Amino acid sequence: MSTSTHAATTATILIADNDISNRQKFAEILEGQGYYPITARDGAEALDIFTSKPTDLVILDVKMAGLTGFEVCRKIKGNPETRLIPVVLVSGLINANDRIVAIECGADEYLTKPVRKDEFIARIRSLLRLKQFTDDLEIAETVLFDLALSIEAKDPYTEGHCARLSIYSVELATALGLPEEQRTALRKASIVHDIGKVAVPDLILLKPGGLTDEESRIMALHPTVGERICKPLRSFRAVLPIIRHHHEKLDGSGYPDGLKGDAIPITARIMTTVDVYDALTTDRPFRPAMSPEKAFAIMQEEVARGWLDGKLVEQFKAIMEKK
């Protein structure tokens, strides 16, 4: 719903309150600060406006008839596409329980009436600055995702690879009971894990046959190059180990660091597992796609060699057999 093209002083702010005098008061204050206010008479109208117009911040009265401010806040914060838009809840009652409910709803701020003008302006400015940082971060992530997908698009044999890895890795992480932070990291890493291949010449990247020793050396640089590309983004902190270590092997024969066993992060081992499976079950220039049964048989051989994590392979096999 948000748009990063709005400057901080021209942000669009939605105000929802049953009381017209409250709506007008907030609108006048915001207009005086250079913002663009839109008003709604109740929660239902607020949601209609919110879904139809780009909105940078939402101010909701708690005790509205019909949909309350709490309910509207839950809908906004419950949608992954809009949950980062700041929501301010305003109440005429000083109620400790309301503050708790506001936190549970995901509200970014809770104010009580009568609201002091200087405090109100300061809180709005602070939230909009934070939103601008978030918008900039989303733009940076989008650029990286687009770059990674453009690399995938160079090779017709890898079409859909990133999307499949996202599904596979999150399913495996969920089955293992990993927390949301690690599942989110895997979802992002599924797209950018090979972004370092941007530094690999196409003659090597798209070569249909085997690579020479020198070509293999160049190809093996892509995990560290990918880590370096993504490192400036703090939101990618949990993604970086997956990018760097998804070509490590349990016996220490992988690259770039020759890590062994549990020294390889669990998220990287998950990515390795699903990456190998997808490579085996999709067409390649030198062979057709293998059946899942054949792919898992080969993966078990790699487990025996000390390359793959046997527990992860077995868990992933159980997941795929249920499909």
- Biggest beta sheet summary: 5 strands, parallel
Give me the secondary-structure category. Answer: alpha/beta
Span of the ends, CA to CA: 35 Å
Classify the fold: give the CATH topology of the largest domain.
Answer: Hypothetical protein af1432
CATH hierarchy, class of the largest domain: Mainly Alpha
User: What low-confidence regions span 5 or more consecutive residues with pLDDT below 50?
Assistant: 1-8
Do you know the CATH architecture of the largest domain?
A: Orthogonal Bundle
Strand content: 5-15%
Shape: elongated
Helix and strand string, N-terminal first? Answer: EHEHEHEHEHHHHHHHHHH
Radius of gyration, in Å, reads: 25 Å
CATH superfamily of the largest domain: Hypothetical protein af1432
Give the count of helical stretches. Answer: 14
Number of strands: 5
Which characteristics define this entry?
Rossmann fold; Hypothetical protein af1432; 5-stranded parallel sheet; disordered N terminus
